[in-house]
Amino acid sequence: MTTAPYNQSILKMNGLSVIESCTHTQNNAGTMFLEDHLFLFVLKGKYTVRYGNQSYTVKKNEMVLLQRSITVEYEKSGEKEEEYLLDYMMFFLKDDLLNEFVKMADLKPSYPEALVPVSVKSVNDRLISYIESLKPYFNQPEEVRNGLIKIKLLELLFDVADTDGNFLIQFLQLKRKERKSITEVIEENIFNPLSLNDLAYLSGRSLSTFKREFKEIYNTSPLHYIRNRRLEKAKELLTHTSLSVTDVCFSTGFENIAHFSKVFKERFGISPSLLKKPLRLT
User: Fold this and answer.
1) 220: Cβ–Cβ under 8 A, 6 or more apart, which residues?
2) Are 10 and 19 in contact (CB under 8 A)?
């Protein structure tokens, strides 16, 4: 235990984290990429999530549902009257679980013409009781069977859907969300430091499907194509702007200067630092 109490407990299903319970008093901010749909419940304190121009502040006994394949900024804080304690749970929902829920709930395939907006909702007594029922499992998480965790996640979805009908529509919207084309995802993120896994998630595909479809479109591997596009842009910036080698490295999606210099020299036969040096007149 440190001066700023922190505790994190995780329940896994098939080796993947699906439920996290966190408690701490230290203010924290950062970013995270949502690989799965996320249900966030705050029991004490305040958790703010920002996506683009949208911001959602989840306070004590409130919840919000966010779709996967987005990068969000977050800020965690507590309230003075509760000694700045933040207590929250996160539920990561896989597509196969949502499929099973939709089937079990016998939901009709009807959708509103306009998307139901994401909103923060109050947690009722039924959901608070559900949260309390999970706490004993965190004492010995490795002994909780996959089947039981799956049942508890399905129970959550039924409880939430019965709490607010709009969540039912949100579930359906998550399922109908159209996949972006691979070319669109690549052009939007070519100079962002995202991994192939991230790009696959953004396109709504598995990594293997993403790689296969990418090669069908570009006739090369995504790693080779993306690296060459970044290197061509880096060469252009080094030649025609006053940006330093370091600035060019990070602005074109590379995260390590030594690696950037190595692959740049392999591609163009000259290091970026030498290319950047001004020519001397003789």
Assistant:
1) none
2) yes
pLDDT digits (tens, 9 = 90+) for 92-142: 988 888 888 888 887 665 555 555 557 788 889 999 999 999 989 998 899
Angstrom distance (rounded) from CA 51 to CA 48: 10
First to last CA, the chain: 67
pLDDT tens for each residue of 155-191: 999 998 887 777 767 766 665 555 678 998 899 889 9
- Phi–psi pair at 51, nearest 5 degrees: -135, 110
Q: Structure pTM?
A: 0.60
What are the E-state strand segments in the chain?
6-13, 16-24, 28-34, 37-44, 46-51, 54-59, 62-66, 70-77, 86-93, 121-122
Dist. CA 74–CA 31, nearest whole Å: 6
Q: Burial code of 114-143, b = ≥16 C-beta within 10 A, e = fewer?
A: eeeebeebebeeebeebbeebeebbeeeee
- The CATH fold assigned to 6-176 is Jelly Rolls (2.60.120)
Beta-carbon neighbour count of residue 179 at 10 Å?
13
Q: Render the burial of 44-73: b for 16+ CB within 10 Å, e for the rest.
A: bbbbbbebeeeebebebbbbbbbbbbeebe
Q: Minimum mean pLDDT among 58-67, 104-113, 243-252: which range?
A: 104-113
Of 210, 163, 170, 203, nearest to 185 by C-alpha is 203
Question: Does residue 198 contact residue 186 with C-beta atoms inside 8 Å?
Answer: no
182-276 adopts what CATH topology? Arc Repressor Mutant, subunit A (1.10.10)
